[in-house]
TrEMBL record:
Assigned keywords, A-Z: Ribonucleoprotein, Ribosomal protein, RNA-binding, rRNA-binding
Origin species: Desulfofustis glycolicus DSM 9705
Protein's job: One of the primary rRNA binding proteins, it binds specifically to the 5'-end of 16S ribosomal RNA.
One GO MF term attached to the UniProt entry: rRNA binding
Name recorded for this polypeptide: Small ribosomal subunit protein uS17
InterPro entries assigned to the protein according to its UniProt record, in alphabetical order: NA-bd_OB-fold (IPR012340), Ribosomal_uS17 (IPR000266), Ribosomal_uS17_bact/chlr (IPR019984), Ribosomal_uS17_CS (IPR019979)
Domain of life: Bacteria
Oligomeric form and interacting partners: Part of the 30S ribosomal subunit.
GO biological process, one term: translation
Keyword rRNA-binding listed: yes
Lineage: Bacteria, Pseudomonadati, Thermodesulfobacteriota, Desulfobulbia, Desulfobulbales
An annotated GO cellular component: cytosolic small ribosomal subunit
Record family assignment: Belongs to the universal ribosomal protein uS17 family.
Length: 86
């Protein structure tokens, strides 16, 4: 029972593509310090996220939340749109 009450993972990223129906591609970037060299490295990961209302546009800043598998690659859902693209 306690597994259902666990907090779900959330990520903040920008919408890269909204060409699919009810699905958006969100790029999440993160910066970390390299262990050996100490240089800051920036990496990015793309997630397929469910957008049931087709409300997201390219360039929007969104908050996505982990959910059950919705399709082969879609395991995230758009929770809120933080900032609209201009």
């Amino acid at each position: 029972m306690s597994e259902q009450n666990k907090a779900r993972k959330t990520r903040t990223g920008s919408v890269v593509s909204n060409g699919m129906e009810k699905t958006v591609v969100v790029r999440v970037e993160r910066k970390f310090r390299h262990k050996l060299y100490g240089k800051y490295v920036k990496t990015s990961v793309k997630y397929l996220a469910d957008d049931p209302g087709n409300q997201c546009n390219i360039g929007d800043l969104v908050l996505i939340e982990e959910c059950r598998p919705l399709s082969k690659k879609k395991r995230w859902r758009v929770k809120t749109i933080l900032q609209q693209a201009e």
